[in-house]
């Protein structure tokens, strides 16, 4: 008996929904492959729809993703996009018990609600990506940690004046790449119209009266803040990283009267 096109489509939708929600058995996976060879549609659409629907079904009960996990996922995504790694195939073993929301998933799939949800998510993702000019500081820091073998990490310590009590974090610096980042937690936010933070990098090869300007920056919250170090000239041998508080726009030479944080690399030997 020949299966009608309508029944084939219904079966295809069922299998795609099952794969997105709970995985397929080897027999079902083979059946899906056979059906897909006769279709021109994109078989990953239900996987995307499943993620979109899951967010909607949570009803706003979403825990924020830890920054470290978000950064790691972003780095893996860049590696995959550049062809450095390949995604692992999803497992096909069927779970011993069906998820509690499986029936709702399949109902949504066959009524087209999942596709609508996926379209909304993809539209938002496209809008968000268009507004980005490049990787976030956190993503760039993670990449630097993976690529720079000479990376040094120095913890912040209170400075001699206006010390930021409770502020923690680190300076991460690669001498060979001349790249680095400052990481802060519990740092006091500043009003950029009144004052700004400014980084200075002391170099043993230069007059200590004139440290290298590492750029001005702002702290908007006491949560984790990652700031790129932007030196105007090459730093040969960094001996001290110092944060000062200056007028908006920073200064060419600091009087160092307001120096809340220091980070000094350990001397070898």
Give the arrangement of secondary structure elements.
Elements: H1 5-21, H2 26-36, H3 45-57, H4 67-81, H5 102-111, H6 113-130, H7 137-147, E1 152-155, E2 157-158, E3 168-174, E4 179-185, E5 196-203, E6 212-217, E7 225-228, E8 238-246, E9 261-263
Give a short summary of the structure.
With 269 residues, this protein is of the alpha+beta class.
Note the main attributes of this structure.
alpha+beta, single chain, 4-stranded antiparallel β-sheet, 269 residues, elongated, 5-stranded antiparallel β-sheet, 7 helices
Structure report:
By secondary structure, the chain is an alpha+beta fold. The protein contains seven helices and nine strands, in the order H-H-H-H-H-H-H-E-E-E-E-E-E-E-E-E. A hairpin with a 4-residue loop joins strand 3 and strand 4. Helix 1 crosses helix 5 and helix 4 crosses helix 7. The longest helix is centred in the middle third of the chain and has 18 residues. The chain starts with a helix and ends in a 6-residue tail after the last strand.
């Amino acid at each position: 008996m020949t299966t009608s096109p309508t029944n084939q489509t219904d079966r295809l939708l069922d299998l795609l929904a099952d794969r997105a929600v709970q995985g397929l058995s080897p027999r079902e996976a083979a059946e899906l492959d056979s059906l897909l060879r006769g279709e021109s549609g994109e078989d990953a659409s239900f996987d995307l729809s499943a993620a979109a629907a899951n967010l909607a079904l949570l009803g706003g009960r979403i825990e924020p993703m830890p920054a470290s996990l978000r950064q790691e996922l972003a780095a893996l995504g860049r590696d995959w996009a550049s062809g450095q790694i390949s995604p692992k195939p999803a497992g096909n073993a069927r779970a011993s018990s069906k998820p509690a929301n499986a029936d709702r998933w399949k109902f949504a799939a066959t009524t087209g609600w999942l596709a609508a949800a996926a379209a909304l998510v993809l539209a938002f993702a496209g809008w968000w990506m268009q507004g980005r000019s490049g990787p976030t500081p956190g993503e760039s820091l993670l990449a630097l940690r993976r690529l720079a073998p000479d990376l040094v990490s120095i913890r912040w310590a209170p400075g001699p004046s206006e010390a930021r009590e409770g502020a923690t974090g680190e300076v991460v610096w690669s001498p060979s790449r001349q790249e680095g980042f400052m990481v802060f937690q519990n740092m006091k936010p500043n009003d950029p119209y009144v004052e700004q933070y400014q980084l200075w990098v002391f170099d043993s090869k230069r007059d200590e009266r004139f440290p290298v300007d590492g750029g001005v920056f702002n702290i908007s919250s006491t949560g984790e803040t990652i700031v790129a170090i932007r030196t105007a000239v090459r730093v040969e041998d960094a001996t001290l990283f110092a944060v000062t508080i200056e007028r908006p726009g920073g200064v060419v030479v600091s009087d160092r009267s307001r120096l809340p944080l220091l980070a000094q690399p350990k001397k070898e030997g």
